[in-house]
DNA sequence: ATATTTTATGAACGCGTGTTCATAAAATAG
DNA sequence: CTATTTTATGAACACGCGTTCATAAAATAT
């Protein structure tokens, strides 16, 4: 029993080594460009050893991801419970999530941009004449809105674009996920999206 | 001259065939899982023919992406010019973007989730006990907030989570992009993020 | 009709990488 | 100390896929 327990502990240590290495390599190169060889080398094991602990690359990645996120959720949730009203909880959720990100920067680079290679597409547009032109146009629009007192000056114009894009994407994603193609058109959601963007999720 | 022009036209037609096929296949399988063979087959050409029109897979993907987005931007921009104030422009931006998405569904499935295979990570959490538990916890928090009159009932609880995540991600992404690790901590942005989420980008 | 140039074809090549497995090393048991 | 079981190793294998290229077909010119 004691023997088993030590062996098991050893096993866990090895697994943790590999986890750490995987975290680092995945964060550095993204899922596709990270190789098992990379990870094994970083952990100072031979390639095959990784397979003594994980069924395959997918399992390694997914379990790593799940583990991290689980850790974050449990911390965030426990901190949230100290607030009594929902607004307080919301604030804590945001602050504690950010704190956890900051303590696990390596990892959350994955979360923020899985498949960062593909982002080239969006980036490449930003370097294109028509892309730059559009960005300028939008930035000007935002500045105008700020002068008109419609948009707060707390945000930089480019940041407003980021936020707009993020919210838009989130609604479209949700729409795809629900297969709403029959029920409701995307365009019909314009109103609520605009409201969400301008006034946030708060009442009134 | 006429001969040249017809040849050129033919060439463009072929290229368009391949574009269409690529759009379809990329949208269906994502960048990595889509193969040149797939695309060629869909376009009813031989594999090698694709390379008569595009240097490599990357160029095909990037130019497709740039072309589509360019088209969208020019339409959206032209429609926006008909509004005089910034708020009107904003509304048009959102509506026309959505309309363009809807007319190019195949393609925008790419845009919305490049590398959709990787999303498995986030999804897999949603199927995990602790993930489900957390979702319930957050949903309850949102409901509570709605009862307290803090969050509008216009949004479903789950949708609020989506929006929160999207905004959070957008801020973190920006932070990474700017390499602000020295200047400012992530946590210090909690306030503005909460404000953005609750009250949107509008003044006051 | 024949020769010449252009375009299309898809089998073959090269390479990267996930995964396995025969072999060696280490740990444990007797 | 020897035998046996467990664990580690990394070369070899398998496979998918981007890319090329010798060959064939089609188009064009003579």
Folded structure, characterized:
Two copies of one chain form a homodimer. The first copy, chain A, is mainly alpha-helical and 204 residues long. Helix content of chain A is 75%, strand content 0%. The first copy, chain A, has ten helices and no strands. In chain A, helix 1 crosses helix 2 (36-43), helix 1 (2-33) packs across helix 6 and helix 8 packs across helix 9. The radius of gyration of chain A is 23 Å and the shape is extended. The N and C termini of chain A lie far apart (63 Å). The model of chain A has no long low-confidence stretch (mean pLDDT 88). At the A-B interface, helix 4, helix 5, helix 6, helix 7 and helix 8 of A face helix 4, helix 5, helix 6, helix 7 and helix 8 of B. The first copy, chain A, binds a DNA duplex (30 and 30 nucleotides) through residues 3, 7, 35-37, 40, 45-49, 51-52, 56-57.
């Amino acid at each position: 029993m004691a023997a088993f327990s030590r062996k098991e502990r050893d096993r866990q240590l090895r697994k943790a080594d590999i986890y750490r290495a995987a975290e680092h390599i995945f964060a550095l190169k993204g899922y596709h460009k990270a190789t098992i060889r990379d990870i094994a080398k970083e952990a100072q094991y031979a390639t095959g050893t990784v397979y003594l602990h994980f069924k395959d690359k997918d399992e390694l990645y997914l379990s790593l991801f799940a583990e991290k996120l689980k850790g974050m959720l449990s911390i965030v949730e426990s901190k949230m419970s100290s607030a009594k009203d929902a607004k307080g909880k919301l604030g804590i959720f945001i602050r504690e999530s950010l704190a956890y990100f900051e303590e696990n920067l390596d990892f959350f680079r994955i979360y923020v941009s899985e498949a960062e290679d593909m982002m080239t597409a969006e980036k490449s547009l930003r370097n294109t004449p028509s892309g730059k032109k559009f960005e300028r146009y939008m930035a000007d629009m935002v500045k105008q809105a700020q002068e008109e007192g419609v948009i707060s000056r707390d945000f930089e114009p480019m940041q407003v674009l980021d936020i707009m894009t993020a919210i838009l994407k989130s609604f479209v994603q949700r729409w795809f996920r629900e297969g709403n193609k029959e029920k409701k058109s995307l365009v019909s959601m314009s109103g609520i999206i605009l409201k969400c963007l301008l006034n946030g999720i708060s009442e009134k």
